Amino acid sequence: MSSSPTNCFIIGYYGYDNAGDERLLTKTVSVLRQINPSVNVCALYPKKAIQSKTKPFSGSSILGETTYCPRYSMLGLISTFLKADIVIFGGGGLLQNKTSQRSLLYYLFLLWLALLFKRPVVFIGQGVGPVTGKFSKALLGRLVNQTQAIAVRDQASKNQLLDCKVLENKITVAADLFYIGAKFQHQPIDGLPVIGVSLRPSAVSIEAFDVIIKGLAECEHDFVFLDFHHHQDSALLGRYPDIEDKWLDIVNMNHVLSTKKMKTALENYSIKSIVGMRYHACVWASIMNIPFVALAYDEKVLALATELGQPVFDLTQSKNLDPEDLRNSLIELNANHERYQKTLIEGVKKLQERSYKNKELLELWLPHS
What we know:
Blueprint lengths: L6 E5 L7 H17 L4 E6 L1 H5 L15 E4 L3 H10 L2 E7 L8 H16 L4 E6 L7 H11 L4 E4 L2 H9 L7 E3 L18 E7 L7 H12 L5 E5 L19 E6 H5 L11 E8 L2 H9 L4 E5 L2 H9 L4 E3 L8 H13 L1 H29 L4
Parallel strand pairs: 1-2, 1-4, 2-3, 4-5, 5-6, 6-7, 8-9, 8-11, 9-10, 11-12, 12-13
Helix pairs in contact: 4-5, 7-11
């Protein structure tokens, strides 16, 4: 008599048309099925997205027979936890309260439920922090210390966990899930040379965006907008009609990241460099071997750019922003293009090696059918 398949419940910020998070879901499912092809996967998803026939990545063969649990259905959550053999928090910035305190408490509540039902819990590819407030830090530390393991994507995330009194032997410094199995891909050289731009409207003030747009307007190249959070990111462009002629296209990155060849939707352009605010825009640039200027609005973007040796336009110093500094960063980046590409290759190889620590943790803790 054969044993029943292993049931995995994957938790993350999925179903909101965010290209980076949807890619993290497919990566997590892909790794799980490499380890155990018969695994049953259920992913946390908003009710509206579950009902939609046009879910991001819904056509992906990787997701296969994946089922979905509504994010805010208590009965659905309890039922899914009871069926699960393991609970996996599958990458991204879930453990932070910069976005909102409610977001952190929501994920900690799910963690508490998993522990209540005595389910093994593993975190992979986590970008942790910032976490502020004594209560939030204490609660996070208390709950995470009861899990099997947590893999983070950088040293800064580990330091944040240690600050929350998470036991060091629980923590593994890995890398973002994007890098698992990633192969360098190159933009076509015969396309129109442009600069790719990724912005995140909620990250900084309108005044900061005014500086960014002014700096871009002074550049000689035209731009392609990389819309990682479809419609939400590109909505910001309507505020700046004076430079609308410089935007050649708005590309839905959900379409790009869901293809086997990640450049398909951009085949008419040769992206020389990228100005990236979203974390996964910078990750994508590094995998494509495209040098980038990081618009560092928080620690995670700064840490990635620093590790990959790419220039940074520091948005945390919002009172002293100068559009000329952004323009000069782009000029310097393009003038030393080959050197920055070489630095990317060296840095990405290290991240690829570290990324497999996520898989090693899953191999260690995933129950086998």
